[in-house]
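Per reviewer request, we include the raw input and output of the structure prediction for the construct analysed in the revised manuscript.
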Amino acid sequence: MTVETAAEGRGAWADVGAAIGRIPSGLFVLATRAAEADRAILVSWVQQAAFSPPSITVCLRQDRPVVEAVRAHGYFALSVLGEDQADLVARFARGTAPGEDPFHELFIERTASGCAVLQEAVAALACRVRAECDAGDHVIILGEVVGGRLQRDVKPWVHLRKDGLRY
């Protein structure tokens, strides 16, 4: 069986999912603002997209409420999580209920656009939305990096999935 025809074989989608799942990614907290409130979610599909201007892409599931918040605000921030921050991964993976402060009892700073970044993150990036692209059940958002810094010189969390066809 060749790579091109793998999807045609019996059980081949499991092989495809396993192969896609081995594409490494990091873990990040994406934050934005909506109706004077913070919105935040754990994301893993983030990639550098350009050097000049420095830009990144972030991929979000279409039905996530944070997508509309990012569109409306026009800005977002990313906190890069370290491999020592399992507590933050668990906290932001659960999400927060409407009206609940996602950063309650955490130390944050604000970007110029008002988005929150975690002070204890490995790094922080402030981004202005430049474009978006439909990606099926997800949307790819291109953000121009308008600010950022390294906050702790530790290894960022590297994430691998067992199956690249579902969370």
